[in-house]
Every structure is written in C-alpha cells, then in structure tokens.
Amino acid sequence: MKNDVYTVLQSQSLIMSQHAVLSVGAKSWRSLPCLRTELRLDLTLSCGQSFRWRETGEGHWTGVIGGRVWTLTQTEDTLWYYTYSMQDSAGEVNGRKRRGEVRPHGPVKRTKGMITVKEEEPTEDLEPKAMTTEYDHKEEEVLKDYFQLNVNMAELYKQWGTADSHFKSIAKAFTGVRMLRQDPTECLFSFICTSNNHISRIQGMVERLCNTLGAPLCQLDGTPYHNFPTLQALADSSVESCLRNLGFGYRARFLQQSARQIMDNHGLDWLNSLRSVPYLQARDALRSLPGVGLKVADCACLMSLDKAQAVPVDTHVWQIAQRDYRCTAGKGHKSLTDKVYRDIGDFFRQLWGPYAGWAQSVLFCSDLKKFQELKEMAVKKEKSEVKITRKKIMKKT
Known about the structure:
This protein is of the alpha+beta class. The chain has 17 helices and 11 strands. The chain has helices at residues 2-13, 41-44, 133-146, 153-163, 165-171, 184-192, 199-213, 231-235, 239-245, 251-265, 270-273, 279-286, 294-304, 315-325, 338-352, 356-366, 372-396, and strands at 30-33, 54-57, 60-65, 68-74, 78-83, 92-93, 96-97, 108-111, 114-117, 216-220, 223-226. The strands form 4 sheets. The chain has a 5-stranded antiparallel β-sheet with strand order 1-5-4-3-2, covered by helices on one side. Helix 6 runs antiparallel to helix 13. Mean pLDDT is 84; it is low at 5-16 and 95-131.
C-alpha cells in the first residue's frame, strides 16, 4: 500500500509541484517575530545538527519537521514558514492552484498494483487558502519548539563572551547559531550514520534511509520528501541487508540492531522518556545500544533530549580545544580515549556553564570549511578593533 501511494504521488507531482517562494504568493505564508541575531537559518540548518534541510531557493530552506514538509526563510526580524499538504504535492503551491492541473479527488481503486485517481476538471486560479487560528497556533508552536525560541541567545552570547575572549571574537560573525530540538528517534539514528563520515555523505545516507523506509509526504520540483522511518521500520530483520545494498556498510547492522533492542527491551516511548532523566543517566542509557559511543550519545542528548550541558567531542573539537584554548587534556595521546573525551567536555562545561553544548556548536560551526571566509572576516575585524583601541590609549598617554 505504501509503494502504491508513493507511485501515484510521484506520477502526479513530477510536473505539478514546486518549492514555495516568499516573493510568490506571500499571503499563504505564515510568520512569527524572530531576530536574525536569535536565529540564522543558513548557519543553524547546515552546521551538522540535522541532515535533512536543503537550500531550495536563495535563503529558502526546505525540510521535514513533525511529519510535515516545511520551507523556511527569514528577514532581519521575522521568520517565515510555509507547510505543504497532500494538495500541495498535486498542484497547490503558495496557496494557489495552477491552471490546467489536477489533484487527487474522487474514488480510489487499485489496478494491477497501482492506485488510479479520478481527475477533476481544470480550474481557474484560486485565492490564497485561509488557515484557522488554531491551525496557525499549532504550527507556530512546532517551530518554537524545534528552534527552542524560548532560549535568549543574545543573553547567552553575552555570558559566553564575558567568560571567553576567543568566543567573543568569533561570535560577532556567527550570531544566531541555535540548537535544534529534534525528534529523538531521527536524531539518534541519523548520528549513528555519522561514524567515520562527513556532512555531505551523511546527508546522502540519511536521505536514502528516509526514501527507502520512511512514509512519503510529497514531491517538490522532482524531489521526494519522506518522513523519518519509525522504530518498527528500522527494526525489521530485512533492514540490514537493504541498507548495506545502499552503501551504509557496517552502520546498517548498528541501525537495525539498535532499533530492535529499543523495541524489545524498552518500547516505543523510551527515547522520549530520556528527556526527563539526568544527563549522565541518559547518556549511559544510550551507550547500551549498538553503534552508540560517547559522541553519538552526546549528540542525541544535546540535540533532542534537552541536555544543554552535553558537549559532543570528536577529533575536530579536540583540535579546537588544543589550538584555541591551550587545553592540555589528552596531551601526548594520539587517539581520543574516553578519559580524554570526558576531560575536554568538563573543560568546556567549566568555561561556558550549563549551556556549554550550545556554545560549542557556535565554535564548531565557525570552524567548518564552508564558513571559513566568514570566520576570517571576523578575526580581521577583531584585530582591527584591537589596533584602534590601542592607538586611542597611546594618544591619551
């Protein structure tokens, strides 16, 4: 049945649907107040927290939250969002139906393994569809929860900058790097895919995982969007061989076995329940799963389980600690042992406080190759400001 639904969606959507753009049909978009300094989509959605967001237009990002496809964009003080429905995948985008196009309508019947849908007559352009206040409120709450907009980033940046001069020099160009609050299943199983991997390859793996095992949602400009697979789907005995054929390698076994272990020993609500237990207890619980070490467990804790003090450490973060902070943890070691990992995490927790994981994400983002030009500009600006300050002091003396 799942494949049949996808077949009819795919056949209808290839020529009928587009990614929404704010400049076209803006009346069907919704918005909420949000300063760019509190959230920068380009940094937050592409720094390795989530692997399912794509820039589908200039400054427009499309991904999946809560089983729905969203396109987000922003101005200096406003976050704009558009959500797609099954109607969108069959012709309605930006709240209007294009001339001569059809959408699923009427009786559905099965014919030789496919679903056929009675077409309705072509219609003229319609006015933007109205949304109820209750519906708007629910969508707004989903976004506020996903981006944790209740957390005041300006205040946190001020605290971190006061405690850490290096952070202060970098942060001016990297404001608005906010920690996502993802679905625990999606977050954990996405990060199991990150072992010995890089962001672009992880994105491809997660996309194949969703397209193969997740429920279809819609198709836009020829790109299919699927929900993240359920635990039941991931736990199926056929999953390992399926994912190996898709290039997952040894990770395929970890994904299937971890899902099976959760289903057999804990139940469907177990991951969500870890949000209400102490940080170290949650991390240790996650580490009991196949393929989940300290880093993967900390990523899940920080990015989906409300543990803001969790500091994921890899060789990249280790280099930052040594290069920029003269941190002596692991000095003389060639590999990142569990002890070195914990020492580095404790170092940053002592420096940055209870939201240490959020501060670490800013520096991690600033150290990514794609953002090096932005970082270099920040460093040059900081050096220039220091020189100007010194000259003023010298003149006074």
